[in-house]
Amino acid sequence: MKLLVAWVLLGLSISLSATAETAVTNKETELKQEPFSDAATLVTLPAQSSVEILKRQGGWTQVKPATAATGWVRMLNLRLGT
């Protein structure tokens, strides 16, 4: 019984981790190199840019846009979902 529960929990954790969380920028926003307002800007993402969420830190979210390198945006500039 314990082995069955362990397998079910393992399967659930794998299926949850395989689902990438996505978001869309709700306005033009700067993609920063680090999670600080004075960090170097990598690119400016236009409004309605789709991004994959990688990590959260304070008021910042690390994202991977389809057209740019990984960077950080302010959490308030994102709308979760596609």
**Major sheet strand order:** 6-5-4-1-7
What shape does the CA trace take? elongated
The arrangement of helices and strands along the chain is: HEEEEEEE
Query: How many helices in DSSP terms?
Result: 1
Rg over alpha carbons: 16 Å
> Termini, distance in Å?
39 Å
Strand content: 35-45%
Q: Structural class of the helix and strand makeup?
A: alpha+beta
Count of strand segments: 7
Q: Characterize the main sheet.
A: 5 strands, antiparallel
Helicity level = 10-25%
Mean pLDDT across every amino acid position: 86
Describe this entry's structure for a reader.
The protein is of the alpha+beta class and 82 residues long. The chain is built from one helix and seven strands. It has one helix at residues 2-18; strands spanning 22-25, 29-32, 41-45, 50-57, 60-65, 71-74, 78-80. A five-stranded antiparallel β-sheet has the order 6-5-4-1-7, with no helix packed on it. Strands 2-3 form a two-stranded antiparallel sheet. The longest helix is centred in the first third of the chain and has 17 residues, at 2-18.
Note the topology.
Blueprint: H1 2-18, E1 22-25, E2 29-32, E3 41-45, E4 50-57, E5 60-65, E6 71-74, E7 78-80
Antiparallel strand pairs: 1-4, 1-7, 2-3, 4-5, 5-6
